[in-house]
Design a protein that fits this description.
Length: about 250
C-alpha cells in the first residue's frame, strides 16, 4: 500500500536550535546591557506599532530597548535575590507582566521622564480599539474619496454610488459612536477618511538604579516632568502675549 503524502516526518531540530540560540543571544545582550547602563526602566506600550517603536529606538541610539519575551528577560536578570545579577535587580524581573519592555540608559532620570511624558504619536485605530469620538458622514458627495474606491465603500457598508464620477452617499451614515469597539470595517473606513484616533505612547512605570540598587514605582508621581513642561510653555505663551500687547523582541536596535 503506497504511503500517504500526508505521512511525512518533519524534523524540528533546526527550529528548536534557532529558538534556543535567539534566547541565548537575548540573555547575553541583557547581561551586557546591565553592565553598560546604570538605569533601567520598565515600560508598557499603548497602541503598539512596530514602526513607531523603531522610531523610538532611532531616537535612543545611545541606549538599549528590549521588548517582549518576559520570561527570558526575567531569567537573564534573575528572579530572586539568590540568582540576581545585580543588587535588587530581581525586582525588575517581578515587574515584567503582560506586554512590556525594558529601557537601558545612562541618560539622566529627569531627561528620560521628560522625553517619554511628552512623546506620543497619532495613528489609525485598529479593530478592537474603543472609539474616542462620534464620526458621521452626511448624505451627498464624498469628495475625499476617488471614484475607484466606491465599490470598496459599498463592501464596507456605505450606501454609495457614482454620480458623474463622484462618490455620492445617498443616506446619512454613522461610522462610529464614542465608546464603540471598532469593527474591522469601521477601522478601515476611518483610515480611508484619514481619521486618526489611536495614540502610540510608551508608559514608564518602574525605575531601577544600578549604582544604588534602588527600585521605584513611577506611576505614583503627583506631577510629571511633562506637567512642568506644559506649565512652562503656558507661561512662555503668556509672556509672548503680553509682549505683543506692549508692542517623535527581540532586543535588536
Amino acid at each position: 500500500m503506497p504511503k500517504s503524502k500526508r505521512d511525512k516526518k518533519i524534523t524540528l531540530s533546526k527550529t528548536v536550535k534557532k529558538g534556543l540560540e535567539r534566547k541565548q543571544n537575548l540573555r547575553d545582550a541583557l547581561v551586557k546591557a546591565v553592565e553598560k547602563y546604570d538605569n533601567i526602566y520598565v515600560f508598557s506600550v499603548q497602541n503598539m506599532r512596530n514602526s513607531k517603536l523603531k522610531d523610538v529606538r532611532n531616537d535612543w541610539k545611545d541606549s538599549r530597548l528590549f521588548f517582549g519575551k518576559n520570561k527570558v528577560m526575567a531569567y537573564a536578570l534573575g528572579k530572586s535575590k539568590e540568582d540576581e545579577i545585580q543588587k535588587n535587580i530581581h525586582l525588575v524581573s517581578s515587574a515584567l507582566r503582560g506586554q512590556c519592555g525594558l529601557l537601558f540608559t545612562n541618560r539622566s532620570k529627569e531627561d528620560v521622564l521628560m522625553w517619554f511624558d511628552v512623546y506620543e504619536d497619532e495613528d489609525f485605530a485598529k479593530s478592537g480599539f474603543v472609539s474616542t469620538e462620534d464620526v458621521e458622514l452626511k448624505q451627498g458627495p464624498l469628495h475625499e474619496f476617488p471614484h475607484s474606491i466606491e465599490p470598496q465603500l459599498r463592501q464596507l457598508g456605505l450606501q454609495t454610488n457614482l454620480n458623474k464620477g463622484i462618490v455620492t452617499l445617498f443616506k446619512d451614515h454613522t461610522v462610529c459612536k464614542k465608546g464603540d469597539v471598532l469593527t474591522p470595517e469601521q477601522a478601515r473606513i476611518l483610515k480611508l477618511l484619514k481619521k486618526k484616533m489611536a495614540k502610540f505612547k510608551i508608559l514608564l512605570y518602574m525605575y531601577y538604579n544600578k549604582k544604588e540598587g534602588t527600585f521605584e514605582n513611577l506611576l505614583n508621581r503627583e506631577k510629571t516632568p511633562a506637567d512642568i513642561y506644559d506649565m512652562d510653555q503656558d507661561n512662555d505663551k503668556d509672556e509672548d502675549s503680553n509682549e505683543e500687547e506692549d508692542d517623535e523582541d527581540d532586543g535588536s536596535d
